[in-house]
Amino acid sequence: MKNTLFTPYNMNGISLENRFLMAPMTRSRASQPGDVPNKLMAEYYGQRASAGIIITEATQVSMQGMGYAKTPGIYTQEQIDGWRLVTDEVHKKGSKIFLQLWHVGRVSSSKVNGLQPIAPSAKIAKETTVYIFDGSPNGDATFVPVEEPREMTQEDINQVIEEFRIGAKNAIEAGFDGVEIHGANGYLIDQFLRSNSNERTDNYGGSKENRVCILTKITEAVAKEVGTEKTGVRLSPFISFKDMTDPEILETIQIAAKKLERIGVTYIHLCEADWADAPEIPNDFRVQLRENFSKTIIATGNKTPEQANDLLGNNSVDLVGFGRKFLTNPDYPKRVELNAEMNEISDNHTLFGGGTARGYTDYPFLNEGK
């Protein structure tokens, strides 16, 4: 089969040199105080600019939306200026970059941000933790259980919609080519989408159509602010960790896809399960999604290049994202092209490293002879 990963692609006016997408990965290197992107982060993203497009790590739209320590924000001028270091470096290297807009909802603790979490309903996420850096001798993150959230009022909902809009506006000011609304992985928007975490009886709960409402309103606000061609949405229909099992989620996602088609967003990004015995995505789901959404479809989830080419070859998706392999191989497309040996994670303790270059920007390129 032709290696379609190396085929140029046009995503609603954004020309990409290849179909390799660097998937969003939380790395917790933002500077303190203020959760500010920095030169180290600019180096990290710049190293990986051989991707056709980069989607950044999840970036909170407010202090309330923060769930883990040292993750970056996009709601202060200092954060905007910090992100400009990143976008300048990536653009200098010839890649495109979108910022992922994030609100964690109930997946948080007052030990992270000093605030009680908020959520569609006052239901704690069972067996779910977040992490802080509490001064442990080796610098590791310490995991703590999430706390019971407060049910959001209409005022809270209005506030969150506005925070996403402002976050998108700030991202464009920071030089990003677009934004991705994080509606996946058990965070706030996903909590509204699922019947087990959303027990509301107002316009934002009850029916599947109502549960899609906040995603629709956030997306409309963001698209109006920055343009539909600069707006994407991430969804995770087959991922249920963080206490998110919902028998209705596949139907709900298809309803959401129709809403996103109407709004005209540039892509839907499917975050797919990536563990060894994860469920396969049924082909009929992909076919139905294609029928409901006509723009770019992205898939991520620890795909191999062979799996990626299969998905691209049968028109199931248009772009494929790679996370762990880009983490350890800044020149991942080149290594795939040459069938070269891959770097592996040197130390799991550095995945959320709290601020150092070790296990972050020190993975070698092929031409470094290591």
UniProtKB/TrEMBL annotation:
> Pfam families annotated for this entry?
Oxidored_FMN
Gene3D superfamilies assigned = Aldolase class I
Query: Which key words are in the record?
Result: Oxidoreductase
How is this protein annotated for GO cellular component? cytosol
**An annotated Gene Ontology molecular function:** oxidoreductase activity, acting on the CH-CH group of donors, NAD or NADP as acceptor
Q: Where is the NADH:flavin oxidoreductase/NADH oxidase N-terminal domain?
A: 5-341
Source organism of the structure: Polaribacter pectinis
**Record-linked InterPro entries:** Aldolase_TIM, OxRdtase_FMN_N, Oye-like
Superkingdom per UniProt: Bacteria
Q: What is this protein called?
A: Alkene reductase
Protein family (similarity comment): Belongs to the NADH:flavin oxidoreductase/NADH oxidase family.
User: What cofactors does this protein use?
Assistant: FMN
